[in-house]
Amino acid sequence: MHTHSTRSRRRRTVVALAVVLAVLGVFVVRLVDIQVVNADEHISDSHERAFGAEQPLYGTRGSIVDASGQVLAGSILEYDCQLDPLLVTQIDSSIASGDSDAQPWSRISVELAAILDFEVDDVQSILGDALAEDPESRYAPLADGVSTGEYRQIAELSMPYLYCQAQPARTYPDGAVGGNLVGFMGSDGVALEGLELSQDQCLAATDGERSYLRGKDGVTIPGTDREVPAVDGGTLQLTIDRDLQWYMQQLIAEQAQDMGALSGAVLVLETATGKIRAAAEYPSVDPNDVGASDADDRSSRIFRGTFEPGSTFKTLTAATVMDAGGQTPTSTVVSSGYETFANGAVVRDAFGHEAYTYTLAGVLIDSSNAGISHFSERVDNQTRYDYFTNFGIGQDTAVDFPGEEPGVVHPVAEWDNQTVYNTSYGQGLTTTMPQLAGAYAAIANDGVRMPLSLVESCTMSDGTVVEPEAGEPVRVVSEQTATQTREILENVFLQSSMADVLEIPGYRVGGKTGTGEKFDPATGRYKAGAYYTTMIGMAPIEDPEYVVVVTLDEPTRVKSSAANATAFQKAMTQVLKHYRVMPSTAAPTMLPKFG
Question: Which family does it belong to (predicted)?
């Protein structure tokens, strides 16, 4: 009996084990069928039943910084927030049945309205409208452009049906400081103006993307997550000094308003490098609030505006006749306040006078149109044209600012009898502030014109530094001619009726004024009583480090370039102080006005 019982137990064990193995075999066969034999079919079916999801990964647009790294334009995070309407209803149902102790939507909607400064009814209608359109809706937009502070308050509500997606937005910490140069972005993130536009290749980020599959319950299916990382934009460093730019903007705003001018500008140029250290304008634009500025004030008149330079051009003519015509500061001409030339052209001075024996220095000191016209005859017209273009007049600058105008210097073949002489004192041609500053900087830099620059470099997100192609320096006049021209310019200021206003204690300064008539395209004539006034100078005159240009468009309180004098003196004083330029140590050389 004992043996039979043992055999029975063994038999039952074997049978049970056989059954287990048979069942396990069935599962193994089925598993191989699912995961191997028909794997593709099942994967395809699961994908069809899953929900594909894509999430943009935003790169950060690069910053624009000044010469010392201070941020003029940067990026911050804002958030686009949304609701899951179906999940709201599910949670409210759980609250009603006692299965959840969460806050109901009626309470959360009140808190959301307070955070976002919305009406409660408006928040609640977002949910109601979405569910009315689709009771199974999983998406309803709540608010775009939510600040970081607001986002944190929303996150503290800890409701799973609230989701906020971060994205970068543009900010300009110093407002209008440099706004005319920096430019601005559209609400859609597209660069619209200024360096934001022209340097977009440096600044723009490359967005990435995260994609994945999720089941009907919203859970991400393992192994389906794919990510293409975003690439941040580069950092654009300018030659501009933020603090100096701020000062110049305050200064020119005050001067333009005091003189009743339509607009005004100040440009500061470093002579040895061609770097623009300040380019201030009034009116300007705050890129944080573009709509507050008139459309005409949203870019840079400094680069886009052209004007007849008037008597500031006499300096270039003087340098030309000294360099190419063998003249010196004490060479002479006989000229009255009204001259009729051999070709029939008539030239008048701003004041009537009898025939004087003027020196070249005296012609610039008295700003005699007729006198400089006589001197211009000592070189041929083509030579003068060539010198003007070598000085950079009528030529594109290396800055390549968007919309920058080149001005107009007509070829000699197009000069009529009057233009032959008008061009010697800045009429019959147009230029820009950067061109004029570059020409004077050539005289300051011993006759070599440096290419102008506004951008120092672009540092890409991987650390690569890209410097712009600046062009080559141009020898315009000899070192001797440059020195002699600077001596004349110093005497222009020293012997001016504005000498006391222009004086900067401790420094020798030289420059020239210009009162250009304004051409009216509507009438084809110059506007009566309307002038574009300019004052340009350099310091210290014995070895100038900086050139400063101040312009006013149609000043009404004082219509001559005397309107610019106070602003010029303050601007140059600030530049010399800001850059700690050493005072002059030698005495000036006084030049005679008459021979």
Answer: Belongs to the transpeptidase family.
